[in-house]
Amino acid sequence: TVLAEQAPALEPWLRARLAERGSPVRSAAELRLALSAEDAEGVRVQWPQGEPAWAALPGAGWRLTAPRLACAATALVAGELLLGPAGPEARAARLRAVLSVQLPGRLELRTRQAVRGQGGPPLAQVVLDGGHNGEALAALHAELQRWGVSGYTLLLGLQRDKLVPSLREPVQALLGAARRVLTLAPQTPRAPRPEELRAFLAALLPAGAALPGATVPEAPAALAAALETPARPLVVTGSFWMLGDVMRLLQDAPPEPAPPRAPSALGSAPR
Which of 2, 35, 50, 82 is the most exposed place for a label (fewest CB within 10 A)? Predict the structure, then answer.
């Protein structure tokens, strides 16, 4: 069994249960992954034995979040068990392979997103995350801060069984950085009634405060509302069901045309 880094109170319990079942344990915490000081888009791994491995991922530095590095450590330890130990070059190749994997809808940041069936300017910035528990929503809030994304429209969809105390603090943090809140009940039997979701959110706002918002019936209406302010970031979270409906409607917009170049003084001089 390969264990990801655990809360201190949980790891002894896990190890005891695994020992009862005769399962050898390796901990991902034996690896130390960190963003490289030499290159903002690189990652350095310190292995328990051997030289540090380093890998650069040009253009991907913004994706190297703390949760992503923790998952990468777990995958690298599993790779050592499956493939055997390796030298520095092979380990660097494994690191690049692991960090190149992308899971759509998990801390995914997109720019210039057009909406199918809608005209006008594209959404300048869209963050997509299917987080639907306290830990995931807290991780989303931390990455929004790291990316400098604030003042956004928050499109939130939560199932009825997620309206629980453990979600109050991370949802409150997301509300605190939002300019507008749109709520959408996922099209599932577990979806809350609109008034249930509104009451849950209203209790998380400061006394007397109210965010402008609305409950929308489905994803097309939610994106149409977001397009009213296309320059404002849109953050979509709370439900993979809702996220799937939204992602099917998004597509990359064509790049902005380059501004015309003014003739230089040299080029306009008489010959």
Answer: 82
222 vs 215: CA distance, rounded Å: 9
pLDDT (tens digit per residue) in 165-181: 999 999 999 999 999 99
Helix %, strand %, coil % of the chain (to 5): 35, 20, 40
Tokens for 235? 């953050």
- Percent over 70 (pLDDT), the chain: 88
C-alpha span between 115 and 138 (Å, rounded): 28
| Chain CA centroid to CA 239, Å | 13
Beta bridge partners of 129: 237
Strand order through the sheet with 108-115:
213-216, 178-184, 152-156, 234-237, 123-129, 108-115, 250-252
Measure the CA–CA gap between 153 and 209, rounded to whole angstroms: 17
95-114: per-residue pLDDT in tens? Answer: 888 888 888 999 899 999 99
Q: Dump the DSSP string for 72-83.
A: HHHHHHHHHHHH
CA-to-CA dists, residue 41 to 21, 76, 269, angstroms? 41, 19, 45
Q: Please report the pLDDT score of residue 63 as a whole number.
A: 62
Give CA–CA dist 107/133, Å, rounded: 14
Give the whole-angstrom CA distance, residue 155 versus residue 122.
17
